[in-house]
Write a structure and sequence with these properties.
- The complex is a heterodimer of chains A (about 575) and B (about 80).
- Chain A is globular.
- Chain A has about 575 residues and is mainly alpha-helical.
- Chain A has 25 helices and no strands.
- Chain A starts with 6 loop residues before the first helix and ends with a helix.
- With about 80 residues, chain B is mainly alpha-helical.
- Chain B is built from three helices and two strands, in the order H-H-E-E-H.
- In chain B, helix 1 packs antiparallel against helix 3.
- The chains are: A mainly alpha (about 575), B mainly alpha (about 80).
- At the A-B interface, helix 5, helix 9, helix 12, helix 14 and helix 23 of A face helix 1, strand 2 and helix 3 of B.
C-alpha cells in the first residue's frame, strides 16, 4: 500500500465506479418529470428506499471512521456505532410519516409551507446549504485520501475522477438514478463489512480478547506489572507488550475520549442530528405513502443496526491483534481511518483489502450523491423554482436542476482539493450539531405543536444554529474547552421556539388539519372534507410543484410582514 | 376512529416509546460515571456496557420501531375503513 498501486483494490474501485455509473445513467430515461428528478417519482418501494437511505447515511466516516474510533478510543467509539442508529428512532416516531404526508420536495418546502413564510424558505435554504456543504467537504477529503491510500492514484486525480463520475450520474439520473445506485452501494458496503470479519474472527475469540483487556490492570498499576505472556498473541503484544497492556483496561473503559457531559452532548448531536439532516430527510419524500415511509425506517434500523454491530468488532479485533500502533507501523504515517484497510490486508489478504476499498468507495459515492441532490435541490427547486423564477416551466426547471447538480459537483471537487488537511470528523460532527439544533427542533415542534408560530420557527433556527457555530468557533479559538455544542444548542433552540411562539401566539397555524386533509385526499378522494390545496397546502403527488406557486409565496411573505 | 383520535393515539404511543428510548440510552453515561466497575462486569464473556450499547440497544431500537409501526398502521387502517 501507500505509493504503490495495488492491483486488486484498483480493479474493485473501478468496478464499483462502472456499476454505479451504469445504474445511475440507466435511470436517465426515467427522469422525465421534476417528480422523477427530485423524489424518484414518489414510487420507491420499502426495501429499495431502506437500502438507499442506509447507503445515503453510511458515509466513509461511518464505514472506516467508527471502527477506527473504537480501535483508537475503545468504548467511547461504541457510542458512535449506536448513536448513529439511534437517530432513526426519533425520526420514525415523530417525523418520517408526517413529513411524507406533507408531500413536498425539500425541507425548505416544509419551512415555507408549514408556516406560510418566504423568509423561512430562505432560512431553510441557507441551513441546508451550510449542513450539506460541511458534510460534502468531509466526504470529498475522504475521496482523495481513500483513492491515494488504496489505489495509489494521486489526490488531485482521485478527487477529480470520483467527483466527475458522481456529478455525471446524478445530473442525468436525478433522484431516480441515485436511488438505484445507492441500493446497490449499500449491499456492497454491508458485504465488505461482514465478509472479512467472518474470515478473521475464527482466528481469535472475540469475548476472550475483550476479557483480556478487561482483566488487565489499570494504567498506573501496569507500570510495575510484568506483561501477561498468555494474552492473545498478535504481533503487537510480542513487541512492546508492557506498554500496550497498560492501556488495555483504560481502552475498554468509558470516558477515554469524552467526559460525562461530552458523552451526553455527543449522543444529543447524533440522535437529534440524524433527524435533521436534509439529505436524509429528502429520501422520505420518495416513498409512495406515509406507511411505506414508516416501514422504510424500520428496515433502515435493521440494516444499519447490523452494520454498526460489526464496527466495534472490527475495532476491537484490530486493537487486540494488531495493537495501538499497528496502522502507523504498516502505513508509515498515523492515519487511523486506514485501520480497516490495514487490518483486512494483514489478516485476510489483498482480496479483503479490495473488498473493504470497494465498500469505502461505495460509501463515499452514495453519500456524495445524496448530498449533491440536497444541495442542488436547494438551489434549483427552492431558490430558482420558488423564489427567483416561480413561473418557470417544468422544462426550464429541469434544465436548471441539471445545471445546479453540475455546479454543486464542481463545488465538491474544488473543496475536496482545497481542504486536503481538513479534520473530517470535526466537520461531520459540526454538520450533525447544526442539523440537531436547527431542522430537528423545527420539524419536531412544527409537526406536533399546533401553536408553533412562524416567528418561533425563524428565531429557533437562528438561535440553535448560531449557538452551535459560536461554541465551535470558541473552541477553535481556544476561548473555552466545550467540544460538543449540541447539549447547549438543541435545548436553546427548543426553548426559543417555545418562548417566541408563546409571545406571538395569535399567529399559529393548523398543521394537524392540513395533514388530515392530505390523508383524506389520498384515502378518501370523494370525501366532502376540504382538500389540502384549498388550505394553501401541497397534496400528495406530482401536482405539488404547481401548488407552491409564486402567488402563494408572495402572499405568505406579505402576511409575515404585516404581522411583524 | 376519526383522524384526530388516531393522531392523538399515535402521539401518545410515540411519546411513551420516546421516553423509554431516551431513559435507557441517556442513563448509560450516568451509570458509567456512578458505577463503572459494575457496568464493566462480564456478561457472556463481554463487558456488560459493551454488550448493552453495542448490541442490546440495537435490539431495543428494532423492538420500538416494530411496535410503533404495527400500531400506527393498524390505527390508520381503521380510519381509512371508517372513512372519517
Amino acid at each position: 500500500m501507500g505509493s504503490e498501486v495495488a492491483l486488486l483494490p484498483l480493479i474493485a474501485t473501478i468496478a464499483v465506479l462502472l456499476l454505479t455509473m451504469y445504474l445511475g445513467l440507466s435511470a436517465a430515461r426515467r427522469t422525465a418529470t421534476l417528480d422523477d428528478y427530485w423524489v424518484a417519482g414518489r414510487g420507491v418501494d420499502v426495501f429499495t428506499n431502506a437500502s438507499a437511505i442506509s447507503s445515503n447515511y453510511l458515509s466513509a466516516a461511518s464505514f472506516l471512521g467508527v471502527a477506527a474510533f473504537v480501535w483508537e478510543y475503545g468504548f467511547d467509539g461504541v457510542w458512535y456505532a449506536t448513536g448513529f442508529a439511534a437517530g432513526y428512532i426519533l425520526l420514525l416516531l415523530f417525523i418520517a410519516s408526517p413529513l411524507r404526508r406533507f408531500g413536498e420536495y425539500t425541507i425548505p418546502d416544509f419551512c415555507a409551507g408549514r408556516f406560510h413564510s418566504a423568509r423561512l424558505r430562505r432560512a431553510g435554504i441557507a441551513w441546508t446549504m451550510v449542513i450539506s456543504a460541511l458534510y460534502i467537504i468531509a466526504q470529498m477529503v475522504g475521496v482523495g485520501t481513500l483513492m491515494e491510500v488504496v489505489t495509489g492514484i494521486p489526490w488531485v486525480w482521485g478527487v477529480i475522477t470520483l467527483g466527475g463520475v458522481i456529478t455525471l450520474y446524478v445530473a442525468f439520473g436525478g433522484m431516480t438514478g441515485v436511488t438505484i445506485a445507492q441500493m446497490a452501494q449499500f449491499w456492497i458496503m454491508l458485504t465488505a463489512m461482514i465478509l472479512p470479519l467472518i474470515v478473521m474472527m475464527p482466528k481469535y475469540n472475540y469475548s476472550e480478547i475483550l476479557m483480556h483487556a478487561y482483566q488487565s490492570p489499570p494504567a498506573q498499576e501496569a507500570a510495575q506489572a510484568e506483561p501477561d505472556s498468555t494474552l492473545t498473541g498478535g504481533p503487537a503484544f510480542s513487541t512492546n507488550g508492557e506498554e500496550q497492556l497498560s492501556s488495555l483496561r483504560d481502552w475498554v473503559s468509558p470516558f477515554q475520549r469524552w467526559n460525562l457531559w461530552g458523552s451526553l452532548s455527543l449522543l444529543v448531536a447524533l440522535v437529534c442530528g440524524t433527524a435533521g439532516l436534509p439529505h436524509i430527510l429528502a429520501r422520505f419524500y420518495t416513498n409512495p405513502n406515509a406507511s411505506a415511509a414508516r416501514w422504510s425506517t424500520v428496515w433502515v434500523l435493521v440494516f444499519i443496526g447490523v452494520f454498526y454491530i460489526t464496527t466495534p468488532i472490527w475495532g476491537s479485533y484490530a486493537r487486540m491483534v494488531l495493537g495501538p500502533d499497528a496502522v502507523t507501523r504498516v502505513d508509515g504515517e498515523a492515519n487511523p481511518n486506514s485501520m480497516m484497510l490495514v487490518t483486512s490486508n494483514m489478516e485476510v489478504g489483498e482480496w479483503a483489502l479490495a473488498l473493504v476499498a470497494a465498500g469505502a468507495i461505495a460509501a463515499l459515492l452514495s453519500s456524495v450523491s445524496g448530498l449533491l441532490i440536497a444541495l442542488s435541490s436547494a438551489i434549483a427547486h427552492d431558490f430558482y423554482g420558488e423564489i427567483f423564477r416561480p413561473g418557470a416551466s417544468d422544462r426550464q426547471k429541469m434544465k436548471v436542476a441539471k445545471l445546479a447538480v453540475v455546479l454543486c459537483g464542481a463545488f465538491a471537487i474544488v473543496v475536496g482539493l482545497a481542504f486536503r488537511d481538513a479534520n473530517i470528523a470535526w466537520m461531520v460532527g459540526l454538520a450533525f450539531s447544526i442539523a440537531a439544533s436547527t431542522f430537528f427542533p423545527l420539524l419536531l415542534m412544527g409537526i406536533w405543536w399546533r401553536r408553533m408560530t412562524e416567528e418561533g420557527a425563524y428565531w429557533g433556527l437562528l438561535v440553535g444554529g448560531g449557538i452551535s457555530a459560536i461554541i465551535v468557533i470558541g473552541k477553535l479559538a481556544e476561548i473555552w474547552t466545550i467540544e460538543q455544542p449540541a447539549i447547549v444548542s438543541v435545548p436553546a433552540a427548543f426553548l426559543t421556539i417555545y418562548v417566541v411562539s408563546k409571545l406571538t401566539a395569535d399567529r399559529n397555524d393548523g398543521m394537524w388539519e392540513k395533514l388530515e386533509a392530505s390523508f383524506h385526499a389520498l384515502h378518501h378522494p370523494d370525501s366532502d372534507l376540504p382538500k389540502p390545496e384549498e388550505m394553501g397546502f401541497a397534496s400528495q403527488a406530482a401536482e405539488t410543484a404547481e401548488v407552491s406557486s409564486h402567488e402563494e409565496v408572495e402572499t405568505f411573505e406579505h402576511d409575515g410582514d404585516a404581522e411583524s | 376512529m376519526t383522524y384526530e383520535q388516531m393522531q392523538r393515539r399515535q402521539l401518545k404511543l410515540s411519546g411513551l416509546l420516546a421516553v423509554i428510548f431516551v431513559v435507557t440510552v441517556f442513563s448509560v453515561p450516568f451509570l458509567n460515571a456512578v458505577m463503572p466497575e459494575t457496568m464493566l462486569t462480564p456478561v457472556f464473556g463481554i463487558p456488560f456496557v459493551w454488550l448493552l450499547v453495542g448490541v442490546i440497544f440495537h435490539l431495543e431500537f428494532w423492538a420500538i420501531a416494530l411496535i410503533y409501526v404495527t400500531y400506527s398502521n393498524r390505527w390508520e387502517e381503521e380510519v381509512i375503513s371508517d372513512g372519517k
